[in-house]
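Students often ask why inverse folding is considered easier than folding. One informal answer: many sequences map to the same fold, so there is more than one right answer. In these notes we will look at a single instance of the problem. The structure comes first.
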């Protein structure tokens, strides 16, 4: 009996340490620099606000602009001119990585990414099922979908590879 209790207590300690370390790692994953968020897990930088919004020093203000994929190059060109760097659409993996499964809709950390729409956001990835469609991540549900044609207008959050 003592051996079983000892085993159970070691298991609980191990699980608590694992859970605490994961929370600690997740908490330290994002470094906030005003309107830019450094994502140390993916070695990228996120714009804190969706396209159409701007950072006012405290939150994202303004209206989110939904764009077709045809118009995304205009948005990235503007971001590159105004903010420097090579901004782009995130991959499915990158965008899915900022989904907060335990958060209410929108399923994202609202302190890090305030005023995110609880709607689908474009990724730069084509559907693996049908190359005519592109992948989106829906922040209302937290799920990704492979069903939108490039003409569909969706929200956008830009990302760039971290400066070295």
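Output (designed amino acids):
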């Amino acid at each position: 009996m003592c051996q079983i209790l000892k085993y159970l207590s070691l298991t609980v300690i191990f699980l608590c340490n694992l859970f605490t370390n994961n929370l600690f790692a997740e908490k330290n994953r994002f470094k906030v620099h005003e309107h830019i968020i450094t994502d140390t897990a993916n070695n990228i930088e996120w714009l804190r606000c969706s396209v159409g919004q701007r950072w006012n020093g405290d939150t994202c203000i303004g209206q989110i602009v939904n764009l077709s994929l045809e118009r995304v190059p205009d948005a990235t060109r503007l971001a590159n001119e105004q903010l420097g760097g090579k901004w782009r659409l995130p991959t499915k993996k990158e965008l899915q990585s900022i989904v907060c499964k335990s958060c209410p809709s929108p399923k994202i950390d609202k302190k890090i990414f305030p005023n995110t729409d609880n709607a689908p956001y474009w990724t730069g990835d084509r559907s693996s099922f049908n190359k005519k469609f592109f992948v989106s991540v829906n922040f209302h549900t937290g799920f990704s979908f492979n069903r939108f044609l490039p003409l569909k207008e969706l929200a956008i959050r830009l990302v760039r590879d971290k400066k070295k």
